[in-house]
Structures are given as structure tokens and as C-alpha cells.
Known about the structure:
Residues 1-16 form the signal peptide. The protein has 413 residues and is α+β, with helices and mostly antiparallel strands. It is built from 5 helices and 22 strands.
Amino acid sequence: MKFLVALAILCYTASATIIFEEQFGEGWEDRWVESTAKGSEQGAFKWSAGKFYNDAEKDKGLQTSQDARFYGISSKFDSFNNEGKDLVIQFTVKHEQKIDCGGGYVKVFPSDLVQADMHGDSPYNIMFGPDICGPGTKKVHVIFNYKGNNLLTKKDIRCKDDELTHLYTLILHSDNTYEVRIDNSKVESGNLEDDWDFLPAKTIKDPEAKKPEDWDDREKIDDPEDTKPEDYDKPEFIADPDAEKPEDWDDDMDGEWEPPMINNPEYQGEWKPKQIDNPEYKGKWVHPMIDNPDYEADDSLYQFDDTAVIGFDLWQVKSGTIFDNILISDSVEDAETQAKELWEVTKEGEKKMKDKQDEEERKKREEEEAKRKEEEGDDEDEDDEDFEDYEDEAFGEDDFDDEDEEDEPHDEL
């Protein structure tokens, strides 16, 4: 039995394939091509681990470095077709700049992409990852290109918006199901056909069917026996009976005086007959459905015949995002292993370093605030002393001696 299990594991390991992997070590520049499509508006990437990290070298990634810029960079690999296999896309994102508006997603492209001219309209197969803009947009994009159309997910998948490194994983299964993970935990899953508009609806309303003319779908009707009371009609507003014509009112000058109008306490509103059950009610008419003649099942929605490039094609208002630990594989286990070996190790040390920096910054702010208050207090004391000196010089020291003033005779009086 143990032999069979070991053999199964060996066979799986042999069949699993890592299609692309990038941890941005030495020489990464030789594997990536920056786009120049936006000219002077194109932002530059730098190689950095950022302000806080677990390992200064191992945690280096691509970091956006200029505010309000477009960013474009991509790496090419051997084209693959994921027919009959899982497809896993995974990478890490760290918005250490407290991002206010900008993308943090990747795109995978077919092999005909011109890398130096990559831009927002370049056709891609999949777009996946976080996108943040203000408090209203904090989502994970999962967009598939199907027959030339980019399809957005119908579900709202929330992304992380703090300053730490987070792991994003997209898993496409060959049975047309999917899973999205953040930090190695499932946040969404389902069926591709249900959660994207790949195909037209399976059924449609029968265009030949119409509601019968004698179909009564009114649950309630006016009671034909109910009549309006004779004293019901009262005006909504009446002249104020307590109002009196002002004494200085001049009819010739001011016109004929009329008392102001007030709400009528006897007004009962518009009369309506009471409602009764409709004896002819047949229920709500439901439009018959038929099979959609334009619907054609597709068991390969998950499949992309030609995937050969991965890239970052972004706009950011505030720069500072770091991308790292990219993986494309046909094995979920590969992604889980990488998550444990890289992201889980990084997050612990990174959090400790950031907490320490935050504490140091807090203490520094408190010290600066205390110093500022102390200096303001000293300034107030100096101001008091200056005023006293001014009084002595201007009026003499004895001018403000109350006891002397009481003892002196007021000869001038």
C-alpha cells in the first residue's frame, strides 16, 4: 500500500509543470522588457524590498517608483496550452505606500504580444489581482478574454488594502470551475459559466407566447358596493377663522384683504373605495421559457491555447507597490508549497519590522509634540516677562504699586 501511494506521488510530481516562476533575484532585468508605449508618462520600476521586510535581499521585487504614471513591464516564456489541466496564477503584492488609487494586478498574454509596446488595449487572456481607487473600489479583478471579449466576474471579491505583503492565487480547473485565494485561503469559487457571461442564457422567453387578453392578474379590486360618504368632500385648506384684517390695511392701496389659508382639520384626503379580493384573479402570468437556439455549451471555457507572456500593465496615482514571487503552474500543490516557503516566511518577519518602525515613529511623534508644547510654554513665559519689562519702562515701577497709591494724598483734587 505504501508503495502504491509513493508511486502515485512520484507520478504526480513528474506530471506537474511549473510554467513560469520569478522571484526577482540577480539578473531579473534580462528576463523582463519594459514598455515604452506611454512615452514620458511611463513610470520606472526599481528593484527593492521596500521599507520593511523579512530578508533585505530575498524580499526584493519590482516596485513602482513615480507618482501618477503608467507602468508596463513583461516577461516571456514558452507558449503553453492548458487543455485538460489546472492553471494556477499566483503572485504577491505589497502596497506599502498606503495606495489611494492604482492597480495591483497581472495580465497573461498570448505569444504575439509586442512587449515594448504593451499598453492598456493590448489583447490579453487573463487579468487577475487587486485594484483600489478611493473607498468605493477595493476589488480583486478576474477578467477572462473569450472570443475577443473581456468578461468581468459578476461577483464582488474584496481585496486587501493595508501596507503588508499579500498573496493572490487564481486557480482554473479543467472542469470549468475556479477558485480565488488571498493569503492561501479561499475567498471565492464557483462555476465559470455561472459567474461570467461566457455564453448566452440557456433558456429565453418564448417570443411566440403572449399573455391572454382575458387574463386578470389583479389580486385586489375596488369594492363595487363601497360608496363615498356625502359629507366626505372637504377642502384641504380653509380661511383662518381667527385672522383679522390689519388696522392699517388700505383696500385702495393694498387690494381687497383676504385671510390667510390654513390646513382644514376636517379634510380626510382623496376618497378611495376599499379593496376586496378579486374573484377573477388567475395569478401572476409567467412568460413561458424555451431553450435558447443561440446557446451552445462549451466545456473548454477554462482553456487558453496560447499563453506565453506575463506582465504588469498599470496606472498608479501614488507609487510604491512591490510585486514579487510570481508563479504560473498546472499544480495547485506547487502554489501551496511556494506560499509556505516564501509568503508565510516573509509575512512574519515583515510584520515584526513594520511594527517596530511604527512604534519608533509613534514615540518620535510624541517626543516632538512634547517638545513643541514645552517650547510654546517657554514662549508664553518670555512673553509675560517682556510685558512686565515694558510696563516698568513705560510707566515706572511705582505706577502699579497699589499700596503706595492709597497712602499718597491726591493734591490735584
